[in-house]
Amino acid sequence: MFGTRARRALGIATLGLIPLAAPVVLAGSASAHGYTQNPPSRSLHCHQGAVSDCGSIQWEPQSVEGPKGFPEAGPADGTLCAGGNARFAQLDDPSKPWPQQPMTSGQDFEFRWELTAAHATTSFRYFVTKDGWNPGAPLSRAQLEPAPFLTVDFGGRRPPFTVTHTGRLPSGKSGHHMIFAVWDIADTANAFYSCADVNFR
Ligand SMILES: [Cu+2]
């Protein structure tokens, strides 16, 4: 004979389906931005381990953000590659063994940025060092040709997360130079800065 066990159903108070007003609050400007992959930036070399003892940039190569308005404004001379951020000072250290990307002067080249946030964009601009520049000193305005050799206007549009554009490399260059890339953000006071060591042939 089976004992019967009285089971008592628990009364379940059915929750009314009242939509909770859950505000979607986006955390402020996180560490989500971008860096040049072609030509390979110093940030990328640190991130990939080609250059060691880089400090925190190796974990966040996309974070070289500084005030916009270069060259009239922007980061101070000697801190250009770090975008003026003291915590990324290694990027301005000329004694590190930065790999040099071979490229052909005067030829078309496909520039590529990897973005982790597709900010509304004013432009991408590319500067190159002057002939006879001093690779043994941190980069400064005086070492750069005054005008960018390539400007890609975006008119405030958002680029794709991988953004490429083809442009003509400066002509008449040979040997080790620096390409200083600037990503001007349309709706903030900032820009992103990226240094790439190249070797023209
Ligand atoms: Cu960002």
Folded structure, characterized:
Helix content is 3%, strand content 30%. It is mainly beta. It has one domain (36-200): chitin-binding protein cbp21 (Coagulation Factor XIII, Chain A, domain 1). Strands 2, 3, 5, 6, 8 and 9 form a 6-stranded mixed sheet that branches. The longest helix is centred in the N-terminal third of the chain and has 7 residues, at 42-48. The radius of gyration is 25 Å and the shape is globular. The protein starts with 33 loop residues before the first strand and ends with a strand. Residues 1-30 have low confidence and may be disordered. The chain binds copper (II) ion (CU). Copper (II) ion (CU) binds at residues 29, 32-33, 117, 119. Residues 29, 32-33, 117, 119 line the site of copper (II) ion.
Biggest beta sheet summary = 6 strands, mixed
Bound molecules: copper (II) ion
Poorly predicted regions are 1-30
Number of domains: 1
Helix content: under 10%
Which fold name fills CATH's third level, the topology? Coagulation Factor XIII, Chain A, domain 1
Structural class: mainly beta
Mean pLDDT: 89
Strand proportion: 25-35%
The CATH class: Mainly Beta
Tell me the overall shape.
globular
| Rg over C-alpha atoms, rounded to the nearest angstrom | 25 Å
Give the name of the CATH superfamily.
chitin-binding protein cbp21
Distance between the termini: 97 Å
Question: Quaternary arrangement of the chains shown?
Answer: single chain
Organism: Prauserella muralis
InterPro entries: Cellulose/chitin-bd_N (IPR004302), GlcNAc_Chitin_IntDeg (IPR051024), Ig_E-set (IPR014756)
Keywords: Signal
Protein name: Chitin-binding protein
